[in-house]
Amino acid sequence: MTRPDIHLMRFEQRLDAPPEAVFPFFADPRNLEAITPPLLRFRLLTPQPIAMGPGTFLQYALRIHGVPVRWDTLIQEWDPPCRFVDVQVRGPYRLWHHTHSLEAIDGGSATLMRDTVRYAVGFGVVGEVARRAVVARDVRAIFAFRAERVPGLLEESAAASDGGPSSTG
């Protein structure tokens, strides 16, 4: 049974690359800065290099409506190139559980990317008012920004790894 204070959002996007080419982009936590709206001033604090897998602990700093926030996450599941799950350990939500999955489509030449977020704001009635007025809209805006940015960044990443025109090498 789902608790009434836990909310669910789902986002889907088709990407013109197979999951094996898409997953490495999302497996690099530094790329989260590039796909997060600049207004949030999102920064990775975890020292490099980062070995990604179950139990990886990541720390971020960001600003939510100008307020500085720390966001610590734990990689709970890691199944390249199909999916991973990150959960908030410390941050702005009472609960944040994000499943990121990649499914091969079009005979394996493309990917259907799905993000499923279960979240709770906390703070009772005040939190529910904030969720309805601001939080849900903000989460949708973050994933809309990602949907705009990811295809181009994947192309740049592929071109750089192939030594193409975007490569600085």
Structure notes:
With 169 residues, this protein is of the alpha+beta class. It has a single domain, classed as 2-Layer Sandwich (Alpha-D-Glucose-1,6-Bisphosphate, Chain A, domain 4), CATH 3.30.530. 30% of the residues lie in helices and 37% in strands. It is built from three helices and seven strands, in the order E-H-H-E-E-E-E-E-E-H. A seven-stranded antiparallel beta sheet has the order 1-7-6-5-4-3-2. The radius of gyration is 17 Å and the shape is globular. 9% of the residues are buried. Residues 165-169 have low confidence and may be disordered.
Please tally the β strands and state the result.
Answer: 7
Portion in helices? 25-40%
Number of domains: 1
Shape: globular
Give the strand content: 35-45%
- Rg, nearest Å: 17 Å
Give the CA-CA distance, first to last residue. Answer: 54 Å
In the CATH hierarchy, the third-tier topology is known as: Alpha-D-Glucose-1,6-Bisphosphate, Chain A, domain 4
Strand order of the largest sheet: 1-7-6-5-4-3-2
Which consecutive residue ranges, at least 5 long each, have pLDDT under 50? 165-169
Helix and strand element order: EHHEEEEEEH
List the helices and strands and how they pair.
Blueprint: E1 7-15, H1 19-27, H2 31-34, E2 43-44, E3 57-64, E4 67-79, E5 83-90, E6 95-105, E7 110-120, H3 124-161
Antiparallel strand pairs: 1-7, 2-3, 3-4, 4-5, 5-6, 6-7
What's this model, at a glance?
The chain is of the alpha+beta class and 169 residues long. The protein has helices spanning 19-27, 31-34, 124-161; strands at residues 7-15, 43-44, 57-64, 67-79, 83-90, 95-105, 110-120.
